[in-house]
Amino acid sequence: MTIAYDDIFSAALSLLPGSRAILAEHLLKSLDADSQQEVDALWEIEAEKRVAEVEQGKVEIVSRQQVFRKLGSRGK
Fold first, then answer.
1. Which tens digit of pLDDT belongs to each residue from 8-38?
2. Burial zone of 16 (CB within 10 Å; 0-12 exposed, 13-18 middle, 19+ buried)
3. 20, 13 in Cβ contact below 8 A?
4. N or C, which end of the chain has less CB nearby within 10 Å?
5. CB of 54 closer than 8 Å to CB of 61
């Protein structure tokens, strides 16, 4: 059974303001959850790509200390 958008919207507007706020918060969180899953999936792909680049010798691993030393020498 499908409920029409207008029916849901009208029902939501009939709620007390506090209840509408809670409903709005839950709806927004549901969007964030979908977005976070997409972000997580994209980061997994990126991590796999970076591991492959290291394993294939395309990039060199640099320690944190080396990075900070190099960054520090730029400002001088």
1. 999 999 999 999 999 999 998 888 777 888 8
2. exposed
3. yes
4. N
5. yes
Nearest 5°: phi and psi at 28?
-65, -40
Give 32-65 pLDDT, tens digit per residue: 777 888 888 999 999 999 999 999 999 989 999 9
Full-model pTM: 0.48
CB 67, CB 61: distance < 8 Å: no
Query: What is the pLDDT at residue 76?
Result: 59
> And the tokens for 62?
């640099």
What's the CA gap between 12 and 74, in Å, rounded?
57
The pair of three-digit structure tokens given for residue 25, joined into one six-digit string: 């918060």
Structure tokens at 72: 């520090």
